[in-house]
């Protein structure tokens, strides 16, 4: 059975972020992931990990101005300096948190730009990031995100991501395969896993129910079948639980929704 990581940016909304580590550990998680840790000192987060016996398995590099609608900078013209500063900041956090991988978001394709013309810049930025990360023993992940939730995002399909990983050719550049996004954009999840896992290019997997992005047992995907397939395919990484608990911020709502979690 795969190892599961609680995504603290989405789970446990009933708690302040810094208190979610304890809540996840109390529910039996041994690993966590989240989006952006930068509002808090890395040392404070590391102390939470240590206090609750948790491993950090993923977080995101700075995405640009999230509140202004930016969703990454790696494909954006003229943002190279900020992109590089962000990668360095992420690698500093990764060192303090002993986190082996970071998700580098691509960005929303500007309306006056042609996506294909941005590809060389995107790949060059990924190559630079992967080189910096390799020196720190960290993997860089790119994630196809569905175009319903994130219109205009640079990367939306698994084959796009795998072609970019192959083109860049860095051993530590991998794909973050979010089955929620993959189901929305492409479906055929079992065959997608059978096709892509044996390549060794999948660096992390995430799950959520489709279409509401609630618990994995709330929606159209047969996750028990896919968990068994992950074992059959020899996946030894973590599965990130990146969903919004159906009970929302109700006290105990996240824990009450964990009936799907294999124990
Ligand atoms: O939303 C997701 O699925 C991604 O994992 C992310 O990191 C930012 O949106
Ligand atoms: Mg995801």
TrEMBL record:
Keyword Isomerase attached: yes
Transmembrane regions listed in the UniProt entry: none
Keyword terms: Isomerase
GO molecular function: hydroxypyruvate isomerase activity
Residues of the signal peptide: none
InterPro entries: HPT_OtnI_isomerases, HyI-like, Sugar_Epim/Isomerase, Xyl_isomerase-like_sf, Xyl_isomerase-like_TIM-brl
Domain Xylose isomerase-like TIM barrel residues, every copy: 21-261
EC number: 5.3.1.22
Similarity comment: family membership: Belongs to the hyi family.
UniProt-recorded name of the protein: Hydroxypyruvate isomerase
Native source organism of the sequence: Rhodoferax ferrireducens
